[in-house]
Design brief:
This protein is mainly α. It has two domains: 55 residues, no CATH class; 234 residues, no CATH class. Helix content is 60%, strand content 11%. It has ten helices and eight strands. Strands 4-3-8 form a three-stranded antiparallel beta sheet, with no helix packed on it. It has a three-stranded antiparallel beta sheet with strand order 5-6-7, with no helix packed on it. A hairpin with a 5-residue loop joins strand 1 and strand 2. It is globular, with a radius of gyration of 26 Å. The two termini are 48 Å apart.
């Protein structure tokens, strides 16, 4: 029932998003092209690549939609984010990204060009002598902080409920009903089979990884938000953390099998040692690329399907209207698949992390079992 309600909610949000962007997508033009002097010029053609990369790349604002006033001027509607810049020459500057007027204005000696902040002189030329340290809160950072706050709130509130006896001496309710089956699933299907008797030691990390990825995946499906898990920097950090956990879980038996593989002919060992050593680094790399590629691909497919409406609409209004039902139908279908992918990729990343950690101390199982027998 909860999943069905979430599905209907996502469909409604997607439909609203399509209605919001419909009047604005064909008119990807700047302020100068919409001024009175250029009122008679032809509008800029719809650029699908610009829309796609504008969605999947980071930004200094949450862009919602845009509209044209009676004079033909373009007015974007967005949520600005803080700009935090430090330079040794100019000191610390803190202001909102709306000061840049979407890249059309300079403020306090800085300008925003192609989402990159540059120092400029009074005449507008770039001042290369000023070295910047950009600490701005971009939409990826803002959304990641929101996801982290929600994760902490969920887990702390559920923990407090259990401490008060709810779910222990009585049936679980509310958020406990929603998350307890997921937590049990991660414990019984991910941690225990792969980590054995050490599962309790790694379960907090696995649960944190799973829910943090899942929350960011679901947020990325809401129109107007950022695709955080589709950012390579985000997945690199997650992969590096897993890499550190895997390395700290290794033992003498693990490294012995890498640098002195047993039961292997001597002339094969140099090649196998190289392959096994590279495998230590390939494992976290696979985690990084798998999550990044899958989350980016789904978003690109959805935007490409929506873009077909406006691409055909430029050829002919009839073609645009004829393409709309097919494009929207496929978009909703892919959108529903992306809901499944959001859960699936969180599970795969967590499960593979548990597999790699378990393999790092696999030799300990052999010794403990031999002692038991």
């Amino acid at each position: 029932m909860v999943f069905r309600s979430m599905k209907y909610c996502l469909v409604a949000v997607l439909s609203l998003f399509l209605l919001m962007i419909a009047p604005s997508l064909p008119a990807q033009e700047n302020h100068e092209a919409a001024s009175h002097e250029n009122a008679g010029e032809k509008k800029k053609d719809f650029d699908a690549a610009e829309v796609i990369f504008g969605h999947i790349l980071d930004n200094h604002e949450f862009h919602l939609t845009e509209y044209h006033d009676a004079a033909g001027n373009l007015h974007p509607i967005s949520i600005p984010l803080p700009i935090i810049i430090y330079s040794q020459q100019r000191g610390l500057s803190v202001f909102m990204s709306s000061r840049f007027e979407h890249g059309h204005a300079t403020y306090n000696g800085y300008q925003l060009k192609e989402e990159k902040i540059e120092a400029v002189r009074e005449d507008g030329s770039i001042d290369e002598g000023v070295k910047l340290i950009d600490l701005s809160i971009t939409r990826n950072v803002a959304q990641m902080l929101i996801a982290l706050a929600i994760l902490v709130w969920l887990m702390v509130s559920i923990a407090n409920s259990y401490k008060s006896g709810l779910g222990v001496t009585s049936a679980p309710r509310g958020k406990q009903n929603l998350l307890e089956p997921v937590i049990t699933f991660v414990r019984d299907e991910v941690a225990k089979p792969n980590l054995g008797h050490k599962y309790e030691k790694y379960l907090p990390y696995l649960l944190t990884t799973f829910f943090f990825i899942l929350i960011n995946n679901i947020f990325g499906l809401i129109p107007g938000t950022a695709n955080v898990t589709g950012n390579i920097a985000f997945t690199v950090v997650l992969g590096l953390i897993s890499f550190v956990v895997i390395l700290f879980s290794t033992n003498r038996h693990f490294w012995g099998h890498i640098f002195n593989p047993p039961g292997v002919p001597g002339f094969v060992k140099p090649i196998l040692i190289l392959v096994e050593f590279l495998g230590v680094f390939i494992k976290p790399f696979a985690l990084i690329i798998r999550l990044f590629a899958n989350m980016v691909a789904g978003h690109i497919i959805i935007i490409c399907l929506i873009s077909l409406i406006f691409i055909f609409g430029q050829m002919s209004s009839i073609a645009g209207w004829a393409t709309s039902p097919v494009a929207i139908g496929f978009t909703v279908f892919i959108y529903m698949i992306e809901v499944l992918v959001a859960f699936l990729q969180a599970f795969i990343f967590t499960n593979l992390t548990a597999v790699f950690i378990g393999a790092a101390f696999e030799g300990e199982h052999d010794h403990s079992e031999a002692a038991h027998h």
